Every structure is written in C-alpha cells, then in structure tokens.
Amino acid sequence: MTTTTTDIAGRRAVDAYTAYEIETFLKREARLLDTERYDDWLAMLAEDIHYWMPAIESRRRANNGGVTHLPGRMAFFDDFMEHLQKRVARFKQPTAWAEDPPTRHTHVVGNVEAYPAESEGEYEVYSTFVNYRSRVETDNDMLIGRRTDIIRRTPDGLRLARRKIVITQTLLQAKNLNTFL
C-alpha cells in the first residue's frame, strides 16, 4: 500500500529524497544562524530573495475573513538581499551595542512539508519554528511561528528565494528583533 501526501490544493508532496534535501537545507540554515555564520547564511539565499515578516493584527473572523496580515501593510521585515546584507554588516560592527555581548540563539525547525511550486525547480515549503534568544544574564525571548518558503534548485544547490514568516505574537515583548527566522 502506497501513501501519497497531498496538500489542501491536492498537490503531491515532493519525493522522499527531495524532502530530505530540503529538510537538511533548513537544518543547516538554523545551525548557521545559531553560530553567527551570517555570511554563509547569506550564501544560501537567492539574489532575488524576499524576506517578509508581516505584523499580525488580531481581527475577528467576521472582519475581512479573519485575515491577520496583508502585503503592503506594516511589517517587521520586508527585506531584499541588499537589506539583509546591510543587517549582517551591522551585526559585525563594534558599534552594534545590541549585539555585544552577542545574543545566543537556538533555532528549532519542524513540521516541514514540501510541494512543487509553480515555477520549475522551485519548491513551496511549509515549516514551523521556535527561536529562543538569550542575551546577557536576564534577557530571554522566544519567537514561535510558521514559515512559507520558496526554495529554488540552482546549479550551486538549493537557495532560499522567498520567505514569509508569521509569528504567533501580535505584540512583541522582545526589546529588539536582532535575529533571522
């Protein structure tokens, strides 16, 4: 008996080897971020990356169908490669007082599902994450959410081309967002 995984649109999930490649890619990304290997992380991104984390609005289901975020509205991140490179460069500066001493990160990625995307050689990947951040003695924050990624196969390997990050919090308690998710 063969079981085929499909999403709500009826798309078949990618084959087992491709799923393994994608999960390995996401785990490597988490490790690079946890160990502050930001230049290596940037190398995992496509040149046309769009990295978007919209702000979440608490809305009643009856209002706008319960939509909690829309493009063009407030976002915590709405970045392209140039913005991400500038953020990484800022982390490295001695004047980046918010990162000295550095934040200690732990990224946990799970519930990974991958499906062929509309464009050939791209995959639509759904995952969940926990980002636990600890800084100095008492600053501890946790960001939890879901991601929808477009991961592209290139001659140089897989590259992250799009990321939409939806966190569960409507109000951030963290003092800063010096992190990548």
Automatic annotation (TrEMBL):
CDD domains: ring_hydroxylating_dioxygenases_beta. GO terms for molecular function: 3-phenylpropionate dioxygenase activity. The keyword Oxidoreductase applies. GO terms for biological process: 3-phenylpropionate catabolic process. Its EC number is 1.14.12.19. Keywords: Dioxygenase, Oxidoreductase. It comes from the Bacteria. NCBIfam families: PRK10069.1 (NF007479). Belongs to the bacterial ring-hydroxylating dioxygenase beta subunit family. This is 3-phenylpropionate/cinnamic acid dioxygenase subunit beta. It comes from Duganella flavida.
